[in-house]
Amino acid sequence: MSSNKTDRYQHHDYFQMDELLDENHLLAREAVQAWVKQEVSPIIEEYAEKAECPTHLFKGLAEIGAFGPSLPEKYGCGGMDEIAYGIIMQELERGDSGIRSMASVQGSLVMYPIFKFGTEEHRKKYLPKLASGELIGCFGLTEPDFGSNPGGMITTIKEDGNEVILNGSKMWITNSPVADLAIVWAKDETGKIRGLILDMDLPGVSAPEIKGKWSLRASVTGELVFEDVRVPKEQLFEVRGLKGPLSCLSKARYGIAWGAVGAALDCYDSALRYSKERVQFDKPIGQFQLTQKKLAEMITEITKAQLLNWRLGTLANQGKVSPAQISMAKRNNVAMALDVARESRQIHGGMGITNEYPIMRHMMNLETVLTYEGTHDIHLLITGNDVTGFNAFK
Ligand code: TGC
Ligand code: FAD
Prior knowledge:
By secondary structure, the chain is an alpha+beta fold.
């Protein structure tokens, strides 16, 4: 039985969605697919097994335009639309959720807030270097005691002349151990949440790695610890309140809604091929109704998620998408991908638990994707709040 480490992946487009895409979208997809095939697929199982981040891929991600694809070209970014951004995330996550994370954090959680909330000087100073991968960034919102409820954070900044003094800690921060800068969210003396661009080399900053993850093993995760860090005031964003970080999350959650479909497509593709090749009781297992039920339901759910993404992207391009619509898509598509991974694992039988196939890696990764950027249940509560007008968080 041949493994999915080979490059036999076929794109699955059951409802002819490609007709809804323009030439730029298709070119972006082709370029990222080719890069993933050449640079990610051959090495990813090994890096995941070693629990090591393939940091050499940052440069390649920059070269294919994965950092800030929908931010303006004048800052060295892609200048593409939101659908192109989504397609890029989909193709990266078909390779691995951790690789998509490398791009999500850099583009949506570091470059986007600098673009949206920074000064023109910030934009000119940081965006081109972040787009080219010369600088790597991370995003510090979550704290040890404040995950789903970031508004409760206890990291603080205190004014002192031309500087602020930063104290506190952040937890579960993608890329923090390898980052050159961090977007950090902290409360000022009036209790308002402020954001700042932090140089990771400043005295008092440390970023110990979090070890022992069984998920997102090819992505590096760490803490951020701040001990009396003196940050120049000009590094602060003007925006105040939780809407600052939450609007960055909207951008990243949008990318995850697309990315999760990529992981699901890879699991489905592998299961479909396996079902035609694997013979039991003298027949390919794809001839059994129970296998067909799994495959038919997988492609149905993938197709529904693809349609949801296309509409989400269209609304985003028109500037009409709401955070609650993004939450619905993130929640639906990640849960769908996890279900597809589990069904795909069953179709692969015992082989499905090995690293000959990508299924267990995707499945384990998706447990993180279900949790970060707002958990599955938090997104359900966002939808509940949106449709009823009643807030059930607190
Ligand atoms: P709430 O009172 O609802 O809102 C506070 C202010 O924010 C505004 N707002 C948003 N703005 C833009 N985009 C959104 N998605 C927004 N959601 C809310 C809101 O209008 C309000 O504005 P204003 O002007 O009235 O002040 O806040 P709350 O404290 O009740 O919390 C709401 C809740 C629970 C939904 C929110 O805190 C939440 O989303 N929690 C989940 C936390 C989360 O997602 N953390 C992610 C951390 S980063 C991460 O995981 C990166 S993974 C990276 C990777 O590797 O890919
Ligand atoms: P908790 O908030 O403690 O939640 C535990 C459980 O309680 C969940 O099931 C949750 O749904 C449930 N729950 C909480 N509140 C409610 C409620 N009101 N009603 C019902 N149920 C509730 N954060 C960053 O800031 N930057 C990053 O780069 C980043 N990268 C990450 C990378 C990885 C690998 C992981 C695992 C996490 C990352 N995160 C990052 C943090 C991530 O966003 C949080 O883990 C997530 O928001 C959930 O917070 P928590 O883990 O503290 O869980």
